[in-house]
Amino acid sequence: MPQNGDESPLERASRRLNSAIDMLEAAVNRRHEEDRQRDALEAQLQAFGSDRSKLAAELDQVRARSVDLEAANREVSRRLDRAAETIRAVLAGQEH
Hints:
rod-shaped, 1 helix, mainly alpha, 0% strand
């Protein structure tokens, strides 16, 4: 191949074209990789959204269960208090 100064205009144009094609291929490859990464991030974001929805539903169920358990606890406590009062009354009646 001739030195730079000895290149014909066609050879210079061909070299510039090859360089431009190489740069275009590199840009396309970078864009493809960026698109692939974006798609992976979008899929991950969608999975996080789905997980969040599931966790929110589970949290609602746990909160409802907690309310039910608190109500049951109050009822059991009330019944135990009543039973203790009845036992005290029976014992007090036997002492007299």
